[in-house]
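Re: your question from the hallway

Yes, I did run it. Sequences:
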Amino acid sequence: MSVEDEIELMGQRLNEKIKKIFGRSLHIREVDAGSCNACEVEVNALSNPIYDIERFGIHIVASPRHADMLLVTGPVTRNMELALLKTYNATPSPKLVAAMGSCACNGGIFGETYASGGGVDKFIPVDVYIPGCPPRPQAVIFGIMVALDKLPQKIGKTGVKP
Amino acid sequence: MNREFTEALKKEFGNNILDEVTSRNETYLTVKKEANVKICDHIYHHLDISLVSIFATDERKKDGFFKVHYVFSLDKGDAFVIIKINIDEKTPRYNSITHKIAAANWYEREIQDMFGLIPQGHPDPRRLIHFEDMPAGVYPLRKDFNIRTKPQRVKGEYVYRRVEGEGVYEIPVGPVHAGVIEPGHFRFSVAGEPIINLEIRHFYTHKGVEKLFENISLDKAVFLAERVSGDNSVAHAVAFCQAVEKIAGIDIPPRAKYTRTILLELERVYNHVGDIAGIATDVAFGMGAAHANRLKEEILQLNEKVTGSRLLRGMNAIGGVRRDIGDKKDGILLELSEIQRDFRELMEYLMSIPSLMDRIETTGRIYNDTAKGLHVVGPVARASGIDRDTRRDHPYAAYPEFNFKVQLQKGGDVYARTVVRADEVCESIGIIEQALWSFPDGEIKAMVGEIPDGYAFGYTEAPRGETLYWVNTSNNKIERCKVRDPSFCNWLAIEYAVLDNIVPDFPIINKSLSLSYSGNDM
Ligand code: SF4
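Structure:
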């Protein structure tokens, strides 16, 4: 199957889920918590004409205040810790957090050192882990779908409607 | 070249030079600590030789001293001259050279943070890598610092430069930006629209890479090098491998050299095309951006077909490459010719759009003397008329065997940088084609045993410019690995490039410099 067909199939499923839960679209804020920038290359690829995730209802937004989900990359460096916490707190609940890439999942090759925090879930609650270094765009889309499945549960807990 | 040069230096500074060691194209001269300014100034200004890096080592265990190395690159004769000074632990101070050589600014501050060696007389002695919440006395690259230490957070304040006057106000931006880019802080002082001062503050993504190198095995270190600056993976990995191969005297097979060259150029092509897409995005020319992004994606998919990784990772190893790409030859050639055709068409189209040209011409000028003074590297330097390219000046891999032109422009503006990148894409495709036409048979990896103790430089011309690794091995482990990413040089230039430009042009200028935060912060 070509990449285009693959994405078309995944995208339709994704779109249905988003429609069911959010009515229209899912807003994502990306946070680089100290990545090597290759994860960003793949996040950016999601918006190129081949993947073009906007057509499935995913919008990458400029501010956490507009976001339903945070997509966090990097091992959370000492110097980015505060900025990550602030971004998390600025995101309205109920919110989802996806840790993208080995670094975000558990620190990856950078591990836990004087400068590197060793994974996003040490600092904020994480709903889904997307492994890979960097994960391919397909994997990111899949990860977002898995995260979406968790949302109804979360909404149930808070009683807030998205 | 090295010989004549060191002889001339000895004549000039005879009794200040304590020791001389030459290995291959590197000459290390240990000089008296007090003579560093005089000698560096002479080499830099009088002999007109570029200062490409400054770094420190902690050799207290060996001979009781810290060393500071000033690395000069003799581009004409493919050689390096390294001036070394010894610094005693009890008086951890030495004379700053920044007032003579502006390019030394960040290096000296980096050494101050990481080793606790104080450059006396530095015009801006603030911290660089450590934030204000780092307690005093934490020097991660000292040998007695444990990498797992988690220093407390303390209270402190970072003082920004202030511009005052009627109508002057500040715009703080970052570290978390609106777009999908890496974190960093920018503080603009503006009067109306024009920017009158920009101060950048980085190192949010400091991950302790250099310390980490000292704590992992040599094989694994190749993977770490790939992750210093993710979109320049190949350039970093090759530079690292070459340094280790130089130490061990390993001559890698021709097929490996060719493969590395092809990978390096594929990396350049996708980066440059991506940068051009970024320029189109930032001038809000969506259609051009869509085309360029589609092309970039095609190259990433080609990368995946050839190496299994969209970012060409996992291919390099000490001694050669890990996967043979011989059977992909025809596929690569075919796809590249299509990509080249589309790319040419795209560039013609972009350059014919008046509203795009209007935004990029004369925007974000970096004058030749500024670029030279700050030791700007790569396509950015070449767009300001600096004729330097590691592939030609310090040949490595299979580059000596191919014809290619170093692309130059004089303007120093966003337009010039775009043109240099566009021309380099075509040159790169030309290099890949030459390499595939004459792709040699044979092994792809040399036998590698224990790596002997030693030190050497490895260098590549990454898509962003000159990338330098200095590796010191001992007991088959890394004792010290100094990484000099091109962005560490080029970030300094952005504060000049934006002056007198309007704030809305900042994203374009930033994009046209294509700077890596991760490679800079490490
Ligand atoms: S997971 Fe890999 S690609 Fe992503 S930031 Fe970490 S090292 Fe880079």
